[in-house]
Patatin-like phospholipase (Haloarcula japonica), 327 residues
Amino acid sequence: MSNHGPSVAIACQGGGSHSAFTAGALQRLLPAVDGESNLVGLSGTSGGALCAVTAWYGLLSEGPDYAGQLLEDIWCDVAATTPPSFLLNESLVWRKRLQNLMVPTTDVSPYATPGRPGQRWYLSLLDRHIDFDEFDALADEAPPHVTVGTVNVNSGVFETFTDAAITPKAVLASAAFPLLYKAVELNGHWHWDGLFSQNPPIREFLTSGRPKPDEIWVIQIEPQTRDDRPTSLAEITDRRQELSGNISLNQELFFVRKVNDWVEKGYLPDGFKHVEIRRLTLDKKLTAASKRDRDPRFIEDLMETGRTEADEFLNRVPKDVAEPPCQ
């Protein structure tokens, strides 16, 4: 990590396959921050957790270039490239599209079909690309620190896991959408998708006792605004899910802004400081159904969009904070 420049934390919102956008964005952001600033934290939920943990592992293992390649590799592995996985992908996407159109479909609990391969496949994906046995040693080298978000189904409270406390099951729990996957047991309690919790965790950047960032860069998957009025059932369903996905993000950012306000009024001790918030957003108009889409062309298009948007984002950041990596 650089020893000069302001400190930065990157928060990755979850969004299923749409998180491939985040992977592409991180491929540009990590070298830029490493060269000009101090990266003190990463966080994520669901697909954002996959990106954040992959980036953290690659960054501390061999540096930003390796982290970028690892993000490329893991999302290429996520893509449905074999005939069976492609057919399964198409069936899941079209099922969701039909549900959004209010076409009657049969819902089956994930507990009624114990043979579902989804969670075993996800754990296998993590095992192929990330050595979690190294996390204890990597945590000793931090910052940056990494945090993933889940929700504790039993207590109904948000729960996060940081650095060496992150296991494959914790990353799996952050992606365990309850209508598709079984809850994941962690520390004697059941956990669901991080989209129901802090999406993504942000306040931990300020309250954990670790180095506080000067800036928080939010990679936002869900659209904050829409110009049109949703009228069809599919449009209403999509917008409702977008708004739901942003509720916790906006609550997290409200906390940061409130702390900033207290700092400016002198209510807080010297350990607190103003933290700038910057957003990098996915502006493509996508549907909720496409969050399940693992078509290789769709994944690569999102990653390329992420790279492009990150380059433009870095051009907007004041030059004393960060500059785009050399081409």
Notes: The chain has one domain: 5-316.
